[in-house]
Amino acid sequence: MNKKKMIRLTALVGVATATGVVAVANQAHAATTTTTETTNQTTNASVESTQAAVDAAQSAFDTAQTSVDNAQANVTSASNNVTSASATLSSAIANKEVATSENIASATSAVSSQAIVVASASQAVSEQAGVVSAAASVQASAQAEATSASASLSSASANVASATSALSAAEAALTSDQSTAANNLSAAESAASSASAAVSSDQAAVDNAQAAVASAQAIVDAVAEVQSSDVINMSAAYITALKNYLANPSSANAAALQEVAKGADYVKELQQKFKSDASLDVVVDPSDPAVQEALSVYAVNLINHLRNQYGLTTAFGASANANVAALDFVKKYYDYENWNIFGTTGSDGQGHNKNGLNAYADQLGTSIAEDAGSGLTTWVNGKATMATTTLHNLLFAVYSDIATMLFDDGGTNNWSHAQSIFEDGTILGTDGFNNVYLGVAFDKYGYAHYELYNATEGNHLGNNAYSLDVQTAAQALLTNAQASLASAKASLQRMTTNLMVAKAAVVAAQNQLAALENSSANDLVAVTKARTQLASAETSYQTALATYKQKEEALKKAGDNLAAAQASLEAAQATLATAKAKLAELEETVANLTNADQLLAAAQAAYEQAVANLTTATGNLGAAQVDLAKAESQLALAEDTAEQAKVRAAIAAQVDQQLNGSTANDRQSAGQDATSLKTNGRALTATVATASTAKQKQGANQGRLPQTGNDDQEASTMALVGLGMLGMATGLYGYKKKKLTK
Questions:
Q1: Does residue 675 contact residue 24 with C-beta atoms inside 8 Å?
Q2: pLDDT tens, 259-279?
Q3: Cα→Cα distances 320→300, 303, 443, Å
Q4: DSSP assignment, residue 390?
Q5: In 319-409, at which residue ranges do the beta strands (DSSP E only) sit?
């Protein structure tokens, strides 16, 4: 709002309000009070009304400003898009210009040459991996020899200590009596007896470890062959029928699937194809982690082979964590609760423990599905007990269960087991199976449980994943057994050495006793003999020490060689990665040259669209700026109106304070003076009365008050008139005896 105009309006309001108070001062006290209160209420209401208008105008202005900001952001974004599209178009034009047949042929040739480089680098990586494997084998052998040398050194040190002790005993025997010698002999014999018992115990441990190694070796020799031969192949007709049924599980599709599946007879036919290898007839514990690993890898390989035939590219996985979870679940919700899933005949069992499945899924925070099979109770080969089961029994159980799930799964099962094997991302209508890991466990009744978990970073079920190469898993089992055997043999060697020392002590004690019984000369011979034995033991110790140092040095060298080979492998792998990146770059170049026309057309269309978007955004910005200017003007007008209302309210409040502070006599005198003022200044009084009801008669006021002018002198004059009238009112009430003259 114009500043001069705002000052003028404020001054006029002041004159009107002050004069209006004087004009009604000649009325009774009650009337004066009522008029003043009415004036205050009117002015206060005006302040509230105008402030509400300001708030509304401010809100409209803020909304318009936001629209302008958003429109400006859209223009900036559209402009950036035009710049980007222009750069892309320029690149496409340049690409089109060089997309000649000669350049395409040259780029294609470069791709072929680089593919040869990649193949060569890949071969180098494979060869270096072999070098690393050989170096690791040498290092492992050196470690074993160093460990053996360390044990020999410890034994030699013990012999020295024993010989030293024997010498001390022999020397003491020269001055001891018969009783002391007898006690020494008794103690030595007791030590020899204990050492002999320890040797017997360790010998049993060695025998057990050797048996475990033999069992593991049998697994290594047979498992890989079993895995390669024990595959289940589905006919094209079966796959088609199964897909039709899973897409639409109608009774007709179910019947068609049952027809091509061949049912129980075909399952028996498959079971007869299972490779029976005598080397697998070793007794194992189904809950042993190594056995669980072999079973889960075997099952996953069978399932993934089937999924591949079905046309699925996503594979199931196997891990130690999934097996641990499966074993824990089966123990908690089947073994401990005596939950017999199949019963004794296969049809009188309790079925799946669904409450347990829900509880365990909540515990792990993931989705779980469970398939179950007859396991060791196959009703084909008879039931095998958990205590005497063999690896052959377990592998056959897994093979038989999966075959049954595929070809004999109709009836009440409605092919649900087959569905769980061939679905992708969901199992039996439940979503959240995007990363399936299988855990295998057998319950105390001999039944097999196949737990399907959705592994995530949060539940860690995919951690400690197994290699799906069965030979690798079996070899790990053999390596662990061999390590246990080596440890048992080392312990046996230590105990055997201790026994030899103890027996030597017995002999020494016996000699000591005999020497005392014969003569002191014999005692001296015993001392001499003990000294000879000590010297021999010390020589043996030095020899063992030299051998130990030699083996330690060989171990260090083997470790250095292994580290160097691994470094070379890493370098070869880096070279291969660089070559592959270069090949990808060249292939992209060929693609760009070959598709130059399409890329150019796409870039041209994108550029034209970006320009059109910029034009639209610019128009929207202009419209928003116009709306903002309107809102700004309306806000300024509302603020001017509000400021006037505040001035009127302030003057009314000041006059009310003056009126309320005078006495009854003052009011009477003021009334008389006001009458005189009314008589002598009728035109002014009439004007003020109209101004005091500005809400009702604003049009009349504007007819009497000046509404034009643009100079400061007019505004100042009107302001002084207002202040003068206010001072006159104050004078009337302040000096009741003073009269106005005509």
A1: no
A2: 999 888 888 888 877 776 667
A3: 13, 18, 18
A4: B
A5: 368-373
Cβ contact 54:638 at 8 Å: yes
What does the block give as tokens for 150? 């360390």
Give the position of tokens 């890898």. 297
Q: Which two tokens stand for residue 438?
A: 């299988």
Instruction: Give the number of other Cβ atoms within 10 Å of residue 361's Cβ.
Output: 18
CA–CA distance, 196 with 139 (Å, rounded to integer): 35
322 contacts 455 by C-beta, under 8 angstroms: yes
Q: 17, 692 in Cβ contact below 8 A?
A: yes
Residue tagged 């991302």 (tokens): 425
Which of 285-289's residues contact partners 24+ apart within 8 Å by CB, and which partners? 286/386, 286/389, 286/394, 286/441, 286/442, 287/327, 287/441, 287/442, 289/320, 289/323
Distance CA 264, CA 406 (A): 10
The answer to whether 374 and 384 are in contact (CB under 8 A) is no
Backbone angles phi, psi at 431, to 5 degrees: -75, 170
Mean pLDDT for the stretch of residues 341-362: 88
pLDDT tens profile 179-219: 666 677 688 778 778 778 877 887 887 777 777 777 666 66
Q: What is the DSSP letter of 466?
A: P
Tokens for 614? 């910029």
Backbone angles phi and psi of 430, in degrees to 5: -105, 120
Task: Give per-residue pLDDT as tens, 475-515.
Answer: 766 787 778 778 877 877 777 887 777 778 777 777 776 76
DSSP-assigned letters across all residues of 440-497: EEE-TTS-EEEEEEE--TTT-TTSSBPPS-HHHHHHHHHHHHHHHHHHHHHHHHHHHH
DSSP 621-655: HHHHHHHHHHHHHHHHHHHHHHHHHHHHHHHHHHH
Alpha helices in 174-235 (DSSP H): 178-229
CA-only gyration radius of the chain, Å: 53
Cβ atoms 417, 405 nearer than 8 A:
yes
Closest CA to 357 of 378, 339, 373, 376: 339
Q: What H or E segment, with its residue span, contains residue 448?
A: strand 448-454
Torsion sign, CA atoms 443, 445, 448, 454: negative
Q: Are the C-beta atoms of residues 477 and 470 closer than 8 Å to each other? A: no
Q: Structure tokens of 230?
A: 């024990």
47 in Cβ contact with 681 (< 8 Å): no
Q: Does the pLDDT of residue 518 top 70, yes or no?
A: no
463 to 315, 316, 366, 437, 701: CA distances (angstroms)? 16, 14, 15, 10, 89
Q: Kind and range of the H or E element at 739?
A: none
3-state SS class at 440:
strand
Asked whether 284 and 389 are in contact (CB, 8 A), the reply is yes
pLDDT band at 124 (very low <50, low <70, confident <90, very high): very high
Q: Is the separation of the CB atoms in 556 and 542 below 8 Å? A: no
In this structure, are residues 446 and 375 in contact, taking their beta carbons and an 8 Å threshold? yes
**What pLDDT does residue 218 have?**
64
Residue-level pLDDT at 371: 94
What is the rounded CA–CA span in Å between residue 620 and residue 614? 10
Helix-, strand-, coil-residue percentages of the chain, each rounded to 5: 75, 5, 20
Structure tokens at 42: 């009117």
Lowest mean pLDDT among 37-51, 152-166, 502-516: 502-516
**Whole-angstrom distance, CA of residue 572 vs CA of residue 564:** 12
How many other CB atoms are found less than 10 A from the CB of residue 365? 9
What residue type is 600 in one-letter code? L
Q: How many CB atoms lie within 10 A of CB 334?
A: 24
Residue 134 Cα distances to 140, 517, 559, 562, angstroms: 10, 64, 12, 9
Residue 63's nearest CA partner among 633, 638, 632 is 632
